[in-house]
Design goal:
The protein is α+β, with helices and mostly antiparallel strands and 264 residues long. It has one domain: Kinesin. It is built from nine helices and 13 strands. The strands form four sheets. Strands 1, 4, 5, 8, 11, 12 and 13 form a seven-stranded mixed beta sheet that branches. Strand 2 (38-39) and strand 3 form a beta hairpin. Helix 1 (2-16) crosses helix 3 and helix 3 (45-61) runs antiparallel to helix 5 (119-132). The radius of gyration is 19 Å and the shape is globular. The protein starts with a helix and ends with a helix. GO terms for molecular function: ATP binding; cytoskeletal motor activity. This is Kinesin-like protein. Residues 1-264 form the Kinesin motor domain. Pfam families: Kinesin.
Length: 264
């Protein structure tokens, strides 16, 4: 249902040459990562979007269009940007920098970009990145994501129009935000408490800027999403009104206060 309502439009945007972005936002333990990634027998939004992309590429190639797909996967942990497609030991104590290219726009310097030629290859990249994400156990979630993760698909289409070559580049940003949390609910202490403070600090900035910019984007203006202090404000540039925010709520009554904050 989630893919039918949101994913098909995201794939349509990519083939039309527009950028798109999907955020999963909510309380820790509410199912954000499962919605985005799913499991081996129940695929989430990201695998379904990737599979649909390659399925449609096969149809388009019959009409003379060629395609290239590149993926990258990063996490933001305590305001540090890390590459999820390299081994953990290779990225220890190394925070990547977000830069601005005069022609191509914002990019993350040194971030691994993998050329993928089929769905199996892109699945390998997802699995590798997921195994490198920063997680920990709390009272709310045995495997709580302690970082914001961004899986980016760069989609390039090349064709000839009246004998003239043309190329269209679009990007899909798929964002799994770390869960908002209250220390009295998670039982967090020490390092977990520090992580929670960083998570909540970055999520607070969603309340104003993202709500404001989503409205502006809906009116047709290309806007950067101001989020997480600085990093995503230049990394997630939007050029199309397709920026769904998946609000994941916990149905339990004792989480009502947290759910109301989320819906607000």
């Amino acid at each position: 249902m989630v893919y039918k309502d949101l994913g098909t439009e995201v794939v349509d945007c990519a083939f039309e040459g527009y950028n798109a972005c999907v955020f999963a936002y909510g309380q820790t333990g509410s199912g954000k990562t499962f919605t985005m990634m799913g499991s081996s027998d129940n695929q989430g939004l990201i695998p379904r979007i990737c599979k649909a992309l390659f399925d449609r590429m096969c149809d388009n190639s019959k009409r003379g269009t060629t395609h290239r797909v590149q993926v990258s996967y990063l996490e933001i942990y305590q305001e540090r940007v890390a590459d999820l497609l390299i081994d953990r030991r290779d990225r220890e104590n190394k925070s990547l920098k977000v830069r601005e290219h005069p022609k191509k726009g914002p990019y993350v310097q040194g971030l691994t970009t993998c050329l993928v030629t089929n769905y199996g290859h892109i699945q390998d990249c997802m699995d590798r990145g997921n195994s490198h994400r920063t997680t920990a156990s709390t009272n709310m979630n045995d495997v709580s994501s302690r970082s914001h993760a961004i899986f980016t698909i760069t989609f390039i289409q090349a064709s000839y129009c009246d004998g003239v070559p043309s190329e269209t580049v679009s990007k899909i940003h798929l964002v799994d935000l770390a869960g908002s949390e209250r220390a009295d609910s998670t039982g967090a202490t020490g390092q977990r408490l520090k992580e929670g403070a960083h998570i909540n600090k970055s999520l607070v900035t969603l309340d104003g800027p993202i709500g404001k910019n989503l409205g502006e984007i809906g009116q047709g203006n290309a806007q950067a999403i101001l989020w997480n202090l600085f990093y995503l404000s230049i990394y997630l540039e939007m050029s199309h009104p397709t920026t769904p925010l998946l609000a994941k709520c916990n149905a339990a009554g004792h989480h009502l206060a947290e759910t109301l904050v989320l819906l607000h």
